[in-house]
Amino acid sequence: MSRDTGTVSVEFRCPRPQDVFSVEILRSIECTAKSCNGDIIQTEYGSTPLTDFNRTFTWNLKASAQQAFQLDFTSTGLRQINPSETCPDKHTYSLQALQATGKVAIGTYCRTGSFHGAQVLKQGSFSVQVPAKQKLQGARFGVSVGEEIKSLAKMKLILPERSSSTELLSPNYPGSFPDDDQMEWEFQTPAKYNATIDFLDHTQPRCLKKSTAVEYHRRGREASVRGLSVTQSTQIQGNFSLTLRNCEMDRARDNTAGLSVHFKVAAVQRSRPVLCEVDLRKEERLSLYIEARPGSECEMKMNFNTKERITLPSKSITQLSFQDCSPEDVRVTARRIIACQQLNRCPKVSLAVPSLPSCLPAPLSNVTWTLLPPPHGAVELLSPSNPLRQSPPGQPCNDSIILQVVEDDGTSLGQFCPEGAIKSIQIHANVSVTASGVGDGVLRTSKLLLHAVFRGEIRERYIFNVAPEKGVQTVLATPGWPEGMKSYSTVSWIISVPAKQEAHLMFTNITQPKCNNRHTNIRVQSLGSLEEMYSRREDEEADSEITISKSFYLNMSNCMPERGHFTVVSQITLHKNKNLLLIAVLSVVAALLLIIFIALGVVCVVIRKKKRQMNHQVSIYNPNGTSFLPGHNGLPKSPEEDDHVYASIEDSLVYTHLLRKGVEMGVYGEADTYRPFTGPTEPPHSQGMASERPEVGVYRPFVPPSHQGPPLPNRPPSQAQCFVKNDLYCTESNSEEEDCGDLTRSAVLGPRMDPEGGD
Questions:
Q1: What is the pTM of this model?
Q2: What is the dotted CATH code of the domain comprising 21-269?
Q3: Structural domain boundaries in the chain
Q4: pLDDT tens per residue across span 110-125
Q5: Looking at the DSSP assignment, which residues form a beta bridge with residue 115?
């Protein structure tokens, strides 16, 4: 290589140096606080063009401290591409920023596009790559002093006056955007066109400080900040800027993704105005409110006058127009006032979502009914189909509608939704009910929500009628939860407990104040009874659970708090009544005992029959003047009756036999005729006379001294009669009563109670 003045000579000792070497031509441009010492001019250098080599023309640019240098691409315009792509004319432009941590690739571009300018903080470089055999096309890009920017770079785009779209990439794409830095794109949107931003792909890092976000700025409007994962702005009218903001990333983990964004900006021609007529003449005391979201491009007109907020009074008919108003840009609400002056003339009112014309740009977001009862009156809210469920904070409604009940002083009774256990709510005050949608906040139904009835004055400030379902947990919170009940206010829940079930009441969250006057009180009292089943004040300790087997009142009252507040959250769960199960078990046991009683009675009768057949006990009259009761050895034999053996004797036969013997012996006259006894009045032997003692081995019946022979026995019926009435009675004459009664009582009932009351 040899050098002459102003020229450089290069000598290659290989046949095709263009396959081995490439050429890079550098030039520096510096800017002071007011101007720069040159522009970027694309031209070949040297007397002999190096067209056989791949060439890179680079301009290093430097601005003064805290300022930026500015490039003007208006002559050609640039279009951003992926670094792996190539341009149709083989001219590929690159813009880089130089930071203390190294170089940052702002982007790679081709000629002809929406990029019309760029500002880079402090210093950087701009280059164009041209392949071998490709002639460098002449172009000139102005260089000037930029603004004092705080971002890494600021790119300027002018969208064409037609429907178009441009794809943009974050710096270092597909690598990570610099740590804790930001990048700005400024868009100029043509008249009668709106811009839409749509994220096609992105990655987010793990942040140590701050957070990743996208900021939208418009002159004279507040900035709109959105996350990378949410839907971005649509229908943006006029010029605006978009800033991509990175956080302080966690680089300790190797697999942590950085920040990269691939998004698209599209220009869409604005729509024509939509005319809409709203007629409220049939809606009594209903007012309509329409409001555009701040920062949106929605243009609303009322009677040809541009408005940011429109109020349509009741009984009116109004002409409206909307241009470039998407459902996300507009909020529509309604309010209806329902008042009654005389209680006996207050009709039942239906609270239903009003039907609005479809020409409105958005559906109804919420509707509020303000209910004004007469003096000393109350408002009752009734659910027409499904009872209501209270929805304390942290337990959102699953249904599409939520009802907010608020007193006229702003005190909230709570949020409610369908499919619960609250059948009605009574409020001793003016009250407002607001119905709104869950999720996207849109009311999608026009069905009947509630009935409102004006009632006479009630003793409590609030009364809830609750009908829990078995196995479903019912949550009840005090009015104003979690802020607390109003001073001296009272609330009652009337809990209906079905038959054969019991309610398990549990207080899961209680906050008690320090009272300045009176006391807080929690009471549980069954319906129709004055006795309290549960009571608790703020200065007392009590159980947090109770079980009630019938319908009951749950009453609470607040004091005048000195500090703190009074809140209670209760849970009610229905179960099968355990006492009924015990009763059922006892019933089964009683039935089994009854069967045992019957069985023992039958056994008693059978045993008695068998005993009568084996050894029938009878009364015997002896004509010799001695009466006796035969034992188990049978009747004594005489010489005349030595061959007579009686296994069993019927009563009639016994008496006939005795009568016949009496006639033969002269004791009785005719058979079946009673004769008085005329035998000796003294006993047949004396204890003092040894000669008259009976012979040994001869059976003699025992006759008590000074007793006459008994008359004919007057026997009761021979068969036992058994009755069951509280106790079991077995009645039998003589020893049979003892056999049956004692057996039955000792086996089953124990000591028998006298039916007249004795033991």
A1: 0.51
A2: 2.60.120.290
A3: 21-269, 271-412+429-441, 459-576
A4: 999 999 999 999 999 9
A5: 78, 157
